[in-house]
Design a protein that fits this description.
Elements (H helix, E strand, L loop, with lengths): L4 H15 L4 H9 L2 H11 L2 H14 L14 H15 L3 H38 L3 H39 L4 H13 L1 H12 L5 H14 L3 H18 L12 H15 L8 H14 L11 H15 L6 H11 L11 H17 L6 H40 L4 H28 L1 H9 L1 H25 L7 E4 L2 E4 H8 L3 H17 L3 H17 L5
Helix pairs in contact: 1-3, 1-7, 2-18, 3-4, 3-5, 3-18, 4-5, 4-6, 4-17, 5-6, 5-7, 6-7, 6-8, 7-14, 8-23, 9-20, 9-22, 10-20, 11-20, 13-14, 13-16, 13-18, 14-15, 14-16, 15-17, 16-17, 16-18, 17-18, 17-20, 18-19
Length: about 550
């Protein structure tokens, strides 16, 4: 199979669009995973089954990858649009495709970092338009132009590499020695351990670790499928939460002074005025935010230009006419300050709260200092981002991927479509609900959500079922073994047989635990973990120690 010029161009554009992260849930899914990108590659290349099988294998090494705080350890998206088409065109097996994906993913991260750096210039250019009260000009420079730049920076090189590079790659692959091929096979068998270790390190607390091992050995001894595994995990999670319910009671604050300050803040928000925004206005603000939340991301301002764009329609309603133009410009400047959070659980509540505060300020300008709005945004963005990253991205996204991955491994595109659709529908609904509630009820809703025992239960339940499922999936997809044999007189035995007689799956579990221990105890450096395991597995595979 060869890659035509038109296929290369289309795949390049699809990669560029995915890297703009539009809209947020759908885009961030593609930005951080392989599996739906494999569906698109299969559609363009005309071989959906092969694309899905290769994509499922490549996805395994990127389980656990999220862009927390804008930092991405590797780039699954770029790896998907290069490794899968190359593997299909060159008739590579899945192991070679996985090995090819690793360096491409690491290169993509560096390109993204350069773009985040360059986007700061566009944000500064947007400031000049804000000074004149021209929010559209700011959006054009700090959001639209950055999105176009991100798209082109990835689209053009991908198209060129696919069209001109597949033939050269085939020539290289034809001359690879057998011992190197064995090493690459060991790399492919080991690398999924990095993804599972990343997830475990992100969502686990020491008391939840046994659930990972429970899921792992349940699969080793019973060989049940993912649906029964999910049902078992749900039942175990229900029992755990039921018997530990008292541990997740609402957090009470005994500091009387702090309570008095909070009461004063609530009183400021509640006094006087009527609601200006309709539910349609709130939905519009939320949808704009959800659509562009990551497009103009920069190291200098992070998500501030996109948040300001989402606020702009409401600000025009609050501060009308030339008489209020000065206040309108001040509001734009407030929201152009540094801002970064998870867009559903963080962006939703903060957007609703900011709308409520700006509405009250417009009705009684001196009652709410501008600094108060900035301080509340800054105070909430970190805790809420942690909540969102844990629930939406570290747990829900990878639960859905793990649930449908067996379909993808059989070449079924539903394995790539179902996870992204489910996550988008759920997270969009959650984000809008939180936006509307926080606009309606103000700071107390966001504060109570953070202190609520319900939120604590959700996080604990997500950790339990997440670790249980990841343990089961690690048991299935980390397939490393050893071919070492021992001869004793007339008898011969294998090291793998000895290990299996003690407990099945010990070697895959040891690989996962080594990476997990490195991330948890030594250094949370995903790049170093990936490179280190790749080198060790490649060397041991070439020497015939691992397969």
């Amino acid at each position: 199979m060869s890659i035509s010029l038109m296929q290369a161009i289309i795949l390049g554009l699809l990669c560029g669009i995915a890297k703009t992260c539009i809209p947020y849930t759908w885009g961030a899914f593609n930005f951080n995973t392989v599996i739906f990108n494999a569906v698109l590659v299969g559609a363009v290349m005309g071989d959906m089954k092969t694309a899905m099988i290769i994509g499922a294998s490549v996805q395994l090494i990127y389980l656990g990858v999220i862009s927390a705080g804008g930092n991405q350890p590797s780039d699954p998206c770029l790896a998907a649009y290069i490794a899968i088409p190359f593997a299909m065109a060159s008739n590579l097996n899945t192991t070679a495709a996985v090995a090819l994906a690793v360096p491409i993913g690491l290169l993509g991260t560096q390109i993204s970092n350069l773009l985040y750096l360059a986007a700061g210039f566009f944000a500064q250019k947007g400031d000049k338009f804000v000074e004149k009260g021209d929010a559209r000009g700011m959006t054009r420079w700090a959001v639209l132009y950055v999105g176009i730049l991100r798209c082109l920076v990835f689209a053009v090189p991908v198209a060129v590499a696919l069209y001109f590079g597949s033939g050269a790659l085939q020539g290289v692959l034809d001359n690879i020695p057998q011992f190197v091929t064995n090493g690459l096979s060991a790399v492919g068998a080991c690398l999924p351990a990095v993804g599972f270790a990343i997830i475990a390190s992100l969502i686990s607390k020491p008391k939840f670790m046994p659930f990972f091992f429970a899921g792992f050995f349940l699969i080793q001894y019973t060989k049940i499928g993912t649906i029964p595994l999910l049902l078992a995990g749900a039942f175990i999670t229900f029992l755990y939460i039921t018997f530990t319910a008292n541990d997740y009671a609402a957090v009470m604050d005994d500091d009387e002074d702090e309570d008095e300050d909070e009461d004063e803040d609530d009183a400021v928000m509640e006094e006087g005025g009527t609601k200006v925004l309709t539910k349609r206005d709130i939905l519009k603000s939320w949808t704009v935010w959800w659509f562009i939340a990551e497009v103009g991301h920069s190291f200098e301002r992070m998500q501030a230009p996109m948040f300001t764009t989402a606020m702009n329609g409401a600000l025009k309603k609050f501060y009308k006419g030339d008489k209020e133009k000065g206040h309108y410009i001040e509001a734009l400047k407030r929201h152009m300050t540094f801002f970064n959070t998870e867009a559903h659980w963080g962006g939703g509540p903060i957007l609703g709260l900011s709308l409520a505060l700006e509405e009250k300020k417009a009705q009684n300008y001196d009652a709410i200092p501008g600094e108060m709005i900035i301080d509340i945004k800054t105070g909430l963005m970190g805790p809420l981002a942690g909540l969102g990253d844990t629930i939406s991205w570290s747990t829900l996204m990878y639960l859905f991927i793990g649930l449908f991955l067996p379909l993808a491994q059989k070449g079924n595109p539903i394995g790539g479509i179902a996870p992204i659709v489910l996550l988008t529908v759920i997270c969009f609904g959650i984000g809008y609900f939180l936006t509307e509630r926080c606009y309606t009820y103000g700071y107390s809703f966001a504060e109570n959500m953070l202190k609520s025992g319900i939120v604590n239960k959700i996080i604990a339940a997500a950790s339990v079922i997440g670790l249980f499922m990841m343990g089961g999936l690690a048991s299935t997809y980390v397939t490393v073994s050893t071919p070492i044999k021992f001869a004793t007189g007339a008898y011969a035995t294998t090291l793998q047989g000895i290990l299996d007689s003690i407990a099945p799956g010990l070697l895959p579990l040891a690989v996962v635990c080594c990476v997990w221990g490195y991330l948890a105890k030594v250094k949370r450096n995903y790049f170093a973990a990936t490179i280190g395991l790749t080198i060790v597995a490649l060397v041991l595979g070439c020497l015939g120690v691992l397969i």
